[in-house]
Amino acid sequence: MLVGLVHFLASAAFAVVLGGRGPLSAGMLALAVGAPTVLAAGLAVLITTLRGNGPRTDLKLHWSWHGVGLGLLFGFGGLFVTVPASVLYAKVAGPGAKSAVASVFGGVQASWPWAVAVFALVVFVGPLGEEIIFRGLLWGAVDRRRGRGLRWR
């Protein structure tokens, strides 16, 4: 709950501070989009380090080539579903449809290093933070409280 509150408050703080300003730079937008997730995920790791059994146990952060292979398999497999679905959506919705990222970064002119940084933020940092917070912390808490049997019901 504390991690979710930190994520919410950090997001709200960026919205309040940056909301009244005119066009923002790509760096400032990247900071506003990425910082709440990084803060919340960092807090989750810190809490499990100080009060729990550590991130390896509590968040189930284990490295294995099998896990990497499964992640790549499901990641690229998901693209085979997502790309045709997004093409279909674009045809149905028309040229005015925008993604969440496009609505935030629409109209921002940035150099290629900032474009690469935003890409890395959206593709790697965001999902990693979500994995730590939701799969690691939240699902781990549900699993411990309700037992392993709840997982398949």
UniProtKB/TrEMBL annotation:
Keyword annotations of the record: Hydrolase, Membrane, Protease, Transmembrane, Transmembrane helix
Cytoplasm recorded as keyword: no
TM helices/strands, residue ranges: 25-47, 68-92, 112-138
The CAAX prenyl protease 2/Lysostaphin resistance protein A-like domain, residue ranges: 113-147
Native organism taxonomy: Bacteria, Bacillati, Actinomycetota, Actinomycetes, Mycobacteriales
One example of a Gene Ontology biological process annotation: proteolysis
Highest taxon of the lineage: Bacteria
GO molecular function: endopeptidase activity
Organism from which the protein derives: Mycobacterium kansasii
InterPro entries linked to this entry: Rce1/LyrA-like_dom
Protein's UniProt name: CAAX protease self-immunity family protein
Claim: DNA damage is one of the keywords in the record: no
